[in-house]
Amino acid sequence: MMEKAGYLQATRSQAVDSDGIPHGIVELHIRGSRYAIRRSDLIRAVTGRVHVQVEDLTRNWGDFLGQTRGLAQVSASGKALNIDLFGLGSYTLSLSSLKAVLYGKERLAVIVRIPEAPLVRIRRVTDGQQTIGAAV
Question: What's the whole-model pTM score?
Answer without folding.
Answer: 0.76
